[in-house]
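Lecture 7 notes: from sequence to structure.

We start with a single chain of 245 residues. Read the sequence below before looking at the structure.
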Amino acid sequence: MEHRASAQKIGTDATLLAGYLRVHGGEWGLSGETRGADLGAGCGVIGLLLAQRWPHLHVDLVEKDALSAGESQFNAVNTQLSERATAVHAALPQWTPTHPLDWAVSNPPYFKGLPAGNERRDAARHQSHLPPNALAHWFHRWVKPNGWLAMVVPEPRDYISTLGSPVRWVAFRTLHHEEPKRHVVFWENCQHETHGPEPLTEPEQVLSLYDENGLASVPYRNYCGDLLLRFPERTAAHRPKSSGV
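Now the structure, written as tokens:
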């Protein structure tokens, strides 16, 4: 995967969401013939990792930044997935798929406060460029009834007010004694009241990326260990210092 031209580079958040769905996607129907979208796809990393894992899956890689969209198209061709992964240069919520979708995934822009002044970087990172209410409106309009949306975000409560209660919520902290910094959260597009499980107001699981010794945890290895060329076996604080040679 190339990400040099993209406004937002590949990071832990995107890799973690893709890795989680590569392990648990069968529970969400990804093993069948489905079509979905990677919203704000950047270089296409999440959608392409899902297409590589699930051979009957089709995904639109939706990205409003022209250079990033071009790079996602390059990555789709370079990974020989372009028949099932389509780069789309478009912005949300204006983009409309040709047919309603089974699912959508996103590592959305979530920074708040004042923009930094870098137009491309701000568009990829600042919540004002894809507010939760705009994302919720698009989701309810274009994802099929009982379809789902999965996101990785630092604060799910920013989205609960517009998307409703999530149906799955897994929190990830970097170290075992820290507060979670990222959350993998799923919402279903329910068209009416159901008598299902009680709405979630807190994470069902809280997992650590590193244990008390600074070593990569079993969940982190399980989700991301085979996706990175250089997997971070230790936290930066526990890595041996360079000799300078």
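The CA atoms of residues 63 and 213 lie 39 Å apart. Keep this in mind for problem set 3.
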